[in-house]
Amino acid sequence: MNYTDLLRSSAQETGNCTCMGLDPQMAMLPGTGSGRARLNQFFGTLFKRMRQTGTIPAAFKPNIGYWSILDHPREGDFSGSEALVDVLDMLETFFPGVPVILDSKRGDIARSSGNYAKEAFDCWKADAVTVAPYMGGDSVGPFVSFGQEKGVYVLCRTSNPGGKDLQNLTVEGVPLYLVVADKIRQWKAGAVVGATHMGELKDIARYFADQPVPLLVPGVGSQGGSAPEVMAALREVGYDITLVRINSSSGLTHPWKSAPVPEDWVDQCLGALRKLTGETAV
């Protein structure tokens, strides 16, 4: 099964196009301690309840920075990476057939880029990865060379306010994000397009509507993006909804936003996830 088939299949099986970001912030999680055991308890409890209640998103997206920051390699401590391994194993057990997108935003050239591609696909065994386009085709190439069975999401128009500093510059009268979109089509990759800039998102989705270019849409929730608005915009331009994944991270894993952690934390996570999967129903 190639990656676009995996996206369509998981959307049909789950009935939604939600992507659940897995970006743990230790201060916001229940329990005590700071390492692997606490993360395992949190995600193990949450995933079990999600499975039991059928509250299942159509993708998961761990951002590697939230896990590697917990490592202390010079002291021989790799608890963050080990916890990510444990969580990836849980995902395979509880949610088979649901794609995992490793959010690592790599961008280099030649053998270095190839090493990053192998890190994502061979070492972490992710289904897809996020990459930066700034260094061009010989940077993105090693990722797409893994073939259609793997997904590659290229940063196109990101959700952060500073994205406009470069992405909205014009190149011969065309916004740079559309120049990147054209390259993404040529590379047969996917695109990261933020939910906080609806005009740009609609332009890009319209540009991709006639061919299967997957979209990863962050920015929903705490960043201010609206899932119903994204869905309406995509449908308006004729984009294939089963190929989009609308991501929320902290809004799903710790919607209480600040300590102390509420006693009903599992129910709050499930409620937030049910809301988003309902808003992104396919």
Strand order of the largest sheet: 2-1-10-9-8-5-4-3
Poorly predicted runs of 5 or more residues: none
Whole-number tally of structural domains: 1
CATH top level? Alpha Beta
* Rg estimate, integer Å: 18 Å
SS elements, strand count: 10
Shape: globular
TL;DR of this structure?
The protein is α/β, with parallel strands linked by helices and 282 residues long.
What would your notes on this structure say?
- The chain has 282 residues and is α/β, with parallel strands linked by helices.
- The protein has a single domain, classed as Aldolase class I (TIM Barrel, Alpha-Beta Barrel).
- It contains 12 helices and 10 strands.
- The chain has helices spanning 3-14, 36-53, 64-68, 79-94, 110-123, 137-144, 164-167, 176-187, 198-208, 227-236, 250-253, 265-279; strands at 18-22, 59-62, 101-106, 128-131, 151-157, 170-171, 174-175, 190-193, 215-217, 244-248.
- It has an 8-stranded parallel beta sheet with strand order 2-1-10-9-8-5-4-3.
- The radius of gyration is 18 Å and the shape is globular.
- It starts with a helix and ends with a helix.
Task: Please specify the SSE layout and strand pairing.
Layout: H1 3-14, E1 18-22, H2 36-53, E2 59-62, H3 64-68, H4 79-94, E3 101-106, H5 110-123, E4 128-131, H6 137-144, E5 151-157, H7 164-167, E6 170-171, E7 174-175, H8 176-187, E8 190-193, H9 198-208, E9 215-217, H10 227-236, E10 244-248, H11 250-253, H12 265-279
Parallel strand pairs: 1-2, 1-10, 3-4, 4-5, 5-8, 8-9, 9-10
Antiparallel strand pairs: 6-7
Helix pairs in contact: 2-4, 5-6, 8-9, 9-10
